[in-house]
Structures are given as structure tokens and as C-alpha cells.
């Protein structure tokens, strides 16, 4: 083979055939696939990190990246430096003071975080339950998860057992807070010693006569406020118990469990260490007294703060400083409430109230400033309640009444009891003002959003304009958070008022709450989208604030350094300035900010010549802004927190979804509402009384249940209705009222075009959900009515054009497959079938009596034939077996009725009457006697379902006849099935043998065996087609000996009640046929031949054809008709002059004709039914024929000839090859037990 050299100088084969090109193309294709996939990943990351913009109209677009971003920005600084290293100066005493005070403040902040993030949530969530189902699917979505079954036994003890660790932590927490309060007071006594004593402990550590440590006093108030918050959570006011009531109930049950275990017999609880039960019980008693009595704060205030070294209660300087600090803090906080600059000011107010309570308990000998007390009291007019967390509400006036002695002497009596009135008025005025505030916030948010979206890059700003740029944009960045705080505070106020006063929230207020929650989430989204641009800007802003603070501090320090006459106070101030400068020269950690505040309090003491007022104010402003920039992420989370929705989700969410459904253009708001609900996850993660993740799962299920039932399902139903009405517009007339709002004008495409929404961990695509619903609905309905395939095809096409939904093609046939009910189903429910279906004797068809659908089911021979072809011929015998069992039960009821003493006596009387008067009556049973019998039986009353006992007896006979009609249809269906199979045999009279032909052709043995099997099959088919089993005779023979016995003589009176039964039946059928033309067709029918079949079958059983014929009943009825016509003619002749009676006469004539027409049809049906049971022969004649046939068979057998198979012998039926086969013979069936004749009806 020739070789060639490629471009690289390699020797390669000259035979190529394109393989080299194919390999290159394959590698290029793989590389392009890699590039495409990698580009898609980069694009997805870009989209996740993209900076989107909200429309100026509000949050009308959603961006899931704000929660699913792969990168998050954490702006919290950290450093590994302790307080001693941070506050280290040459002034050792001052350093120690600042370190101690800073550590105490930091400790309080840590306690506060522990309480609100770890300890309180499990208590508030204790009444919440776990998920009802493992998951919500199409089968379980209709079950409301908000309604729960009764808890299982022992569940309460298990829940409380999971909470014991939290109770232990709470006990330790309360002890720790009490110790912290005591230590803070001792430090104050060390800083503000009592001046009228000469003890060493009363000597001041440093001179701080003009220093007001407001941060320390606020920290002390925070400790006390935390204790009172625990009081409200564990022992709330009456009527607001909530979770605490259930917790207390389970606590008592758990204690009873401990007692019962201790008193149990030895060995009953082998896994329990009984030596630990008693100490544990004492520990629970300790916890109960410490936490559950509602006296946590009072216990702390009553503790002995005095010690041998420190006398707190006698230190009036501390008392004066306490009142001064409270007054100063109140003057700073109260004006800010409700204004733009308010951040967490109202959450700081409880600390001031607790400080006043501390003064009242500790300094009992010193009177509280009445002016300060009135100022605190008046605050509740502006702030009636303070929502702490969840459903914990702090009411200022109630707190003062509870902890301040002799308050009624300071406060006016009228104002003293006006708290409830103030809250009521505030609640009435808030909803309207809140609606306006939401609208104003929306407008301000839109303006702020536009401005913050246009912030340029810092690198593009010139150095000369940098200062003004940073100053203006600092306010702009903080403005959004401050606006969010204002709206959030109003929301919590409104929710707190409704919670405390137990007033239902109005619909408008509820919808405004939802809008406010959406706006808060939209504002948070804007910050999150812009963190990548704001983070470097915030860093530069904080550096600028550091520069401003350091410049001011340097100026003050230089001025002090120029004066060499230092006093000890000046040295302390100078050291404080140095500490502040050190703090501003590092990252803005929480420890640095606390130390800077304490140092600032000492450096800015009143009455000194060190810092001027303008410098103090400037430095205070810089410190506040620096803290705001450092805490902006925390402030943003607090301002946009929407966990309050969790406790009101079952009220707010349905209202919100109903309103959203009526305003489809606002559909994009939905995702923001779901983000607001998702805010609860961080709270639910702290639930301890259930298994981990149970609360999150339960909340997700409840939210999805509301969205499914209030939004998804209505949208699906409306879209389906719209498609149907659009397709059938030619059948609908336009509404002539132009002012009536049309529901079909609502544009639901806004919902369908939404991207997939996130419901916690579940993702729901509305378009996919709607497509699945329409596919399922159209398929199911189309299978019921296959002739509507074109209509549903048009609806699918319209859904694609109008809603952009690409539906699945069902590929259903366009015609009906006639299968009907299966014989197996009817056989297993024979009692239901004969009750719910009418039988038509002539057409051999069963018709359903009534149905919830627009059509009635029918059963005919073809249906039975199809089932027999499916299951095999052997099912026919099994069906007869089931029918026999059914007839046994019905004959027992039949015997009960005829065995009743009243019925039996009445029938015997009628038989005696007819026998005695037979010749006088011309051997015709009188019509009047039949009516009399019918009336006498009706006098017995009615059954529970409002039917007379004669009608009940007629129904029993009809059901027996329906069963016999079903047996007839089974036999006809079998013959139909056999005829379809036998049609391939050319001549039934001359069937050749395949086995003989095979032998003549010398075929192999395996082929001969197959030919033999084929001959057997063909022989069976021919036999079944030619003869078949007479099931009627079989069902007669199996009962005949028993029912004709002497112990069942009461049943032999049956023939005499037939006239009364026919009257009852004819009345029933006339009423049923009249209902055919009425709107309510319940009970309508046009045929019911089961009654005639039942009469014929029962007469055959009792051998009473002759007895019934002797009554000549139908001839008597015809004579009655003649008499009725003669009477009608006579009445017409007499009333010819009166035209008013013509209509009555016409109605009477139609009634007579209808009555006697039905009797004729009944006579014909009964005559036809008797043919099936060979009514032309009596029992004696049939016995004689059977005897002659048996003698002929014996003679043929003795002569060596085989007789023809008898057509009436059940054993002549072909052997069944089906698992359902069970041959039925009279000898194999047990006899029917005779019921006692005196059983009442």
C-alpha cells in the first residue's frame, strides 16, 4: 500500500477513506459542546449576580437570585483582640474602668442575642404542630393541613421532654442576668460613691461627677427588660396565653408522669433509674417556681443588692444618676418615635420603664421624680403597645401599674384608667393612616430606587468632589433602611394592637399588611442586588468617617497638650481621647464601638473646658453614622423582617390570594409575598418541641395548600371555563347589560407568564401546573365521551394560541369501544346489579335506573359475550353459583313475608272466599277483592325508607326476576360467543377429524397430538353451539323439593296475592313512565320486566300455574275495564250539558286507558316469561316425561348404543378450562333451611 508524508513529516498510510476528517470533526464537535456548556454556566452565574432594576411602579418583577445567589456579601468585621488590649493606655485605672464597663455592655448584648435568637423562639412556637402528611400530592392536597386530628397519647410528654434543655438554659439565663444586674449596680456604686461616709469603698475610683454613662444604664435596663419579656412569654396576661397555656398544660402532664413512674410497681419501667427521679422532680419544682410563676422580673428587683463592701440601696448618687440618665435617654428617644430617623428607638423604651421600676424597688426611701414618671406615662399615648417578638406585646401603662407603687397618686384618675380607650381609638385610626403610609412608602421607595440605581462608580468621581459625593450618598444608602424601619414599626404596632386587644383585623388592613411586607422584601432585594457595588462604597464611607473622627479628636488632643496644667480629670479625659483614637484606627467591630462609646461618655463630661459643644455634637454624629454604616446589614434585616406573618398566615394568605386573583396584573407580587413568608424559616429552625425540620415542613405544606386551593385551582378552573366558552361561543348569547362586569375579561396570562415561584423548598411552575391540569382533565373527559375528540382538539389549539400552553396529544380513538360492565364485576355485586337495573324481556337488555352522569349504562348480549370471550366459558357456571346464593337470601325474605301471621291469615281468607264463591264469580277473581287486599296490607304501615310492605315484596320478586333475566342473558351471551368462534367451521353437520387425516398422512406424533387437541376444541364448540345448558331448569330443580315441602306450606299461598301485586306493580310503572317527561327523572323508567320474570319463576317453583290460571285474573281486569268505560259513557251522557266536566272526563279516560294498557303489557310479558319455564306442563307431566326418557336411555344402553346427550342435563355441558369453572348440580347444593313462619315483617 502506498504511503505518504503529512505536513509534520510523519509517514502515514495513503489509504484514508475520510477517517482522518471524521476524527477531526468528532473532536471539534466535542470541543464546541464543552464551550457551549461552559458558556451556559457562566451566563447562569452572571444572571445570578446581575444587578436588576425594579420598575418605578413598584415590585412588579421578581428575581430569585436575591435568595439563591451563589455569593453573599458579609460586611461584619472581625479581629482577634480582647478588650484589655484594645483599651490599653498608660492610665491603668481608667483602662480598668473602661474595660470592666465595656465587658458588661458586651455581656448584655450577648445575653440579648441569646434570648431573642435561641431561647424565646422555642417558647413562642410551642403550640405549633408538625406536618399532617409526609408530602402534599394531588391526593392529599384537598385535606386541610390547618385542621388536625387529636394528638396521640403521650405526645404531650414527648414534646415537653424535648423542651427540658431549653428550660434548663432559661434557668441558667435568668440566674446569669440577675448576676449581671447586680454587677452593673455594684460598678455604678464604685463609680458614684456615697459622699456622706468615710469608708474606703466609698472612695471614687475615678472622678466622673459630670459623666453620664447612658450606655451602661441602657444595658442595665436591657437586662431587666429581658426578664420581663420572659414573664410575658411564659406567663402572659389573661386571654393572651397562646403557646404558654399549652406549655403549662403539658408541664403538669409531665409532672404527673413522673409521679406515676415513681409509684409504679418494681420492674414496670426497667430502663429507668429511679434514684434520679426524685432529684429531677425537685429540679422541675425549682424551675417552675423560678420561671412559670410570672415573677421573674419582680424576683430580680427584690433581690438583695447590698453587700458588706457595697450598699446599693443607700447610694443616692446612683439613684440621682439613674433618674438623670432615664430622663436624658427619654428626651433622645421620644421625639424620634414615628419620624424618619427612628431605628430601634421604641424597642429601647422598655429598658427605661424597667429602670424606673428598679428605682422604685431598690431606692424605696427616695421618691421618684413625678415629672419623669408623668413623661413616661404620657409616652403610651403616642406608643400604646410595643411588639417585642411574635405575639409578645409590651403595654407601657400596664407595666407601670404593675411595678410602680402609688402610681394612682401621681397620675390623674381619669388618665389612669384611659389606657384601653387610648388603644381602642388608636386601633380605629391606624388602618386608614396605615393605608396612606403604605402608599407614601411606595412612592418614596420608587424615588429612592431610581436614585440608588444611578449611583456612579467611586473610581469615576474626582478627588475634589469626593467629599460631597460620599456625604450625599451616605444619607442615600441609609435612607432606604430608615424608611423601612418606619414602615416596619407601623406594621408591628398594628399587629400588636390586634393581638393585645383580640380584635379581628379588617380585610383592607390585612391587604395593606401584605403590601407592606412585599415592599419591605422589595427594598431588601434592592440592597442585595447592589451589595457588589455598595460594599466598596461603604468601606470608603467608613474610612471617611474615621478620618473625620480622628481629625476632631486630634484637634482636641492638641489643644489639651498645649496646657501643661493637668488635673486628674484632665488626664482621664486625655486617656479617653487616646482610646477613642485607637478605636477609630481599626475595623468597626462591636467591641471597638462599645469601648469608643464608654470613652466618649468620659471624654465629653459636662462642665469641662476640654471639648466644645460643636465638637461634641460633631463627634457624636460621626459615631452614630459610623455605627449605622457598620450595622447596616443588621439594621436592614431588622427593618425588613416579616416573621410576624407566621402567626397570621392562615388569615392573611387566603385574603391576599383572593385579592391577587382578582387583579392578575399584579401577579409578580406573589414571589415577594412568598419571600416574606420564607423569612419565618430562621425562626422555625429554633423549634425544639418537634423533630428537626418538622415546623418548616408543616409551614411549607400549609402555604402550598393555600396557594393550591386559592390560586392554582381557581386559575385552572377559570382557564378551562374560558376555553370551553370560547369554543362554544355559538351557543352563548351576549349579555345585554353593558354595566355588568364580565369575569371572562380577566387576563390570567400574567399568572401563566410568571417564572417558577419558590414556596420554601418547593418550586411551582404555574404554566406547567396548568398544562398538567388541562391535559389530565381533557384526557379523562375525552375518554368518557370519545365523540368530543374534535372539541377537545380545538380547545388544545386555543390554549396554545391564547395562553402559550403546548399540551400533550392524547392519541385517543375517535369511536366507542363497546365493552360495558364486566361479568365478573356484576357477578361479585349481583345484589347491587339486580337492585339498580331494569330488565327488558323482549330486547334482552338491562338499563341503569339512575345515574349521576348524563347517560345511563346498559348491559346487553354483546357485552356479556365480550366478557365470556375474555374470561372463558367456565365463568358461566360460576355466575349461576353466585346467582343461586343470591336467590337463597331472597327466598328467605320471601318466606318471612308470606309466613307473617297477618299476611298468611289474609291470604287463607282470600283462598277460602274464592273457593266458596268461584261459581258465583264466574271463576274470575274480583278486581275489588285485589284492591281490598292491597289496602289491608298498606295499613300495616311503611318501612324506614317510606315504602309499603307490599311494594317491598314486589321489589323482592322483581330482583328475583332480574336475576333470572341475567341468567338468560348469560346463556344467550355464551351462545353468541360460541357462534362467533364456530363460524370458521364450514359445516357443523359434517366435521372431519384432523387426527385421522394426520394418521393417513403419516405425520409425526407431536403433530398428531396437536390434531387431537384441535378435534377436542372443535367438538366442544359444536356441542356448546348445538345444545348448551338449561340454567332455568337447573335453578328450578335445585329449589323445588324444598319449597314444595310441607314445612313451607305458607309459601303455597303465593298465587292468591299475585292480583294485589300486579295492581301495585302497574301503579309503580305508570308513575315511573310519567316521570320520563319531567325535569327530575329520579325513579323514571319505561320497562321493568323483572317482575314478570320473577312471577313466572316462582309460580314454576310452587307448581301453581294452574292455580293462578284458575283465577282468570287478567280476564277480570278486562271486565273491569269494560265496566269503567260503560260508567264513563254514562257520566258523559248525564253531564253533556256541563262543559266544565269535559276535561275531567278526558283525564279519567286517559287514566283508564293507561291502566289497562299496562295490564295488557304485563299479561304479555308474563305469558312470554312462562315459556322459559315450560308452563304448558304440570309437575306430574314433567315427572312422567323424565321417567320415559330415563327408560329409553337404559334400553339404549342395554343394546350397546349410546343415547343422545340430553339437552336438559346439566352434566352435558362441556368441561370448563377456566379457573372460574364450578359445575352446578342440584345434588351438590345444600337445601334452603325453612324459616319459622311466625317471623314478623
UniProtKB/TrEMBL annotation:
Stored Pfam families: WASH-4_N, WASH-7_C, WASH-7_mid
Low complexity biased stretches: 1203-1216
Regions of compositional bias (Basic and acidic residues) in chain numbering: 1181-1202
GO cellular component: endosome; WASH complex
Cited InterPro entries: WASH-4_N, WASH-7_C, WASH-7_central, WASH7
Region annotation Disordered: where it falls in the sequence: 1181-1241
Superkingdom classification of source: Eukaryota
WASH complex subunit 7 central domain mapped to chain residues: 644-989
Gene Ontology annotations of biological process type: endosomal transport; endosome organization
Domain spans labelled WASH complex subunit 7 C-terminal: 1007-1174
Domain WASH complex subunit 4 N-terminal: 33-642
This protein's name: WASH complex subunit 4
